[in-house]
From TrEMBL:
Keywords carried by this UniProt record: DNA-binding, Repressor, Transcription, Transcription regulation
InterPro entries registered for this protein in UniProt: DNA-bd_dom_put_sf (IPR009061), MerR-type_HTH_dom (IPR000551), MerR_fam (IPR047057)
GO molecular function per UniProt: DNA binding; DNA-binding transcription factor activity
Transmembrane stretches, start-end: none
PROSITE patterns: HTH_MERR_2
Phylogenetic placement of the source organism: Bacteria, Bacillati, Bacillota, Bacilli, Lactobacillales
SMART domains per record: HTH_MERR (SM00422)
Pfam families: MerR_1
Stretches assigned to the HTH merR-type domain: 19-87
Protein name as annotated: MerR family transcriptional regulator
Organism: Secundilactobacillus folii
Length: 146
């Protein structure tokens, strides 16, 4: 998928927000409904309400609740867990942007899937690949035939 296709898919899916009730989020995450209400009151999470209806949470908020809950299980306070979730979101957004900007396709190198990250110099004599192996990811510079 090229950058233009990704942008089109992003635009298409933006209008397709999934909304979950508080009971669904509680059941999926193991965080009680009263805790979710408290977290929302404190501003750590948010929900959408229309015309006095029940709270509705987006998929992104469900992921945020998981992250906060996991951090708290590791011993973080609620405030520190929420801060950690914010930092993780920022990191993921940067990685997403970098991947969208650089992604050129998927190839195969030495029998392994390899993500083509494009040329590494202005003369276009080498391409950067992330080679996905069972035991981890390798970086490989591959000379081009230019």
């Amino acid at each position: 998928m090229n950058t233009e296709e990704h942008e089109q898919l992003s635009e298409f899916t933006q209008g397709m927000e999934w909304h979950l009730g508080i009971g669904d989020v509680s059941a999926a995450t193991g965080v009680s409904q009263s805790q979710l209400r408290y977290w929302e009151q404190k501003g750590y999470i948010s929900s959408e309400k229309e015309h006095g209806q029940n709270r509705k949470y987006t998929y992104a908020m469900l992921v945020r609740v998981f992250m906060i809950r996991n951090a708290m299980q590791e011993g973080f306070t609620l405030a520190a867990a929420a801060k950690r979730a914010n930092q993780h979101k920022e990191t993921m957004n940067l990685l997403k942007k970098a991947m969208i900007d650089r992604f050129q396709g998927i190839d195969e190198i030495d029998g392994c899937k390899a993500i083509d990250m494009g040329y590494v110099n202005q003369h276009q004599t080498e391409r950067l690949y992330l080679v996905l192996k069972e035991d981890g990811t390798d970086i490989k510079l591959v000379p081009t035939s230019k």
